[in-house]
Design a protein that fits this description.
alpha/beta; D-Maltodextrin-Binding Protein, domain 2; 2 domains; 3-stranded antiparallel β-sheet
């Protein structure tokens, strides 16, 4: 089984069963992680779907640096899944010390519903708590047989689009917002025309997986659809996993500025006695070493000078828009688009 298929397999169950299973697994982890930082300290990073490979490298690099600086051994454990579903597991009690999720509204939800994260969490770390950014590109089949070049091509009647469910996946929300923002700007900032564009796009979606990794497997391994809107890292991972002779990456002229934030779960870190090492882990994400790892995995580092020129060459400069400039703050963005009865529910034909 491929890395992508194996990683996606766990996303097939219901949200409730995933939450119960996660609680069973990680309550045991919480017991191991309690007490002051010591030679066997463990912290839990609850992250989103496409960062499995990234954090394998980040965690190892941090653990090595921490050992060299302090003489203490630390293990960084990671949990991955659709970002919205992952936020829900933290809200339901999984003892995350840090969260590294795919969209700001997911951390806002944890802060609002649990009070375990400071409401002003975005001001606690540099660059609004964004150690890296990303954007949405299009993965197509080799030779681009449908001639897909821009967002407009995703609403053609002969093009089937594979994208995850924005109710559970940050990648799904970025794809939704990317399509909406593209049409809004193109159509003279007409919300009505942007809504119509997104409705037409979702009529072209045959399946909504719960997470970005599941959608990648549906497209790349199951052979569904003609185009996969995805973050750059996920598109390049598909090339590495399934072969550059099977797919191409199409970079649209305009796309969305994707913001995957990080935060300390203060309430859990204090309870677990892991605040010091958890804060150090988040600070490490801004180090030159971590920034180079981000670029290696096809994420956009905020310190480009720390990255390899070869890695940066695969992250071309394109015109990016911020959805906050078009729709307001993240409370408004989340409630208007993705809460029950929001725009996605109104426009989607998939029954979600």
């Amino acid at each position: 089984m491929s890395r992508l298929a194996s990683a996606a397999q766990g996303s097939r169950g219901s949200r409730a069963s995933r939450t119960l299973l996660g609680l069973a697994c990680f309550l045991a982890l919480a017991a191991a992680a309690t007490g002051p930082a010591s030679a066997d300290t463990a912290i839990l990073n609850v992250s989103y779907d496409p960062t499995r490979e990234l954090y394998k490298d980040i965690n190892a690099a941090f653990s090595q640096e921490w050992k060299e600086k302090t003489g203490e051994a630390v293990t960084v454990r990671a949990s991955h899944g659709g970002s919205g579903a992952q936020a829900r597991t933290v809200i339901d009690g999984i003892p995350a010390d840090v969260v590294t999720l795919g969209i700001p509204s997911d951390i806002d939800a944890i802060a609002r519903l649990t009070k375990k994260i400071d409401a002003n969490w975005r001001s606690k770390l540099p660059n609004d708590s964004l150690p890296y950014t990303s954007t949405v590109v299009f993965l197509v089949r080799k030779g681009n047989p449908k001639g897909i070049k821009d967002w407009d091509d995703l609403v053609r009647s002969d093009v089937k689009v594979i994208t995850p469910n924005p109710k559970t996946s940050a990648g799904g929300r970025w794809n939704f917002l990317g399509a909406w923002g593209y049409a809004y700007e193109k159509e003279g900032r007409s919300a009505g025309k942007a809504n119509d564009f997104v409705a037409r796009l979702y009529r072209q979606v045959p399946v909504l997986d719960t997470g970005a990794r599941g959608s990648t497997v549906s497209f790349a391994q199951r052979g569904l659809g003609d185009v996969l809107p995805a973050w750059e890292n996920e598109a390049f991972l598909a090339l590495d996993e399934f072969g550059k002779d099977k797919f191409d990456v199409v970079v649209p002229p305009v796309s969305i500025y994707a913001e995957p934030p990080v935060a300390l779960v203060d309430g859990n870190a204090d309870k677990n006695g892991t605040r010091k090492v958890s804060e150090a882990f988040l600070q490490f994400l801004y180090s030159d070493k971590a920034q180079a790892i981000f670029a290696k995995h096809h994420y956009r580092p905020i310190k480009r000078e720390a990255a390899s020129p070869q890695d940066l060459a695969l992250l071309p400069n394109i015109k990016l828009f911020k959805i906050e400039d078009l729709q307001g703050n993240w409370d408004k963005i989340q409630s208007a688009n993705f809460d029950n009865g929001g725009l996605f529910d109104q426009l989607s034909k998939a029954g979600h």
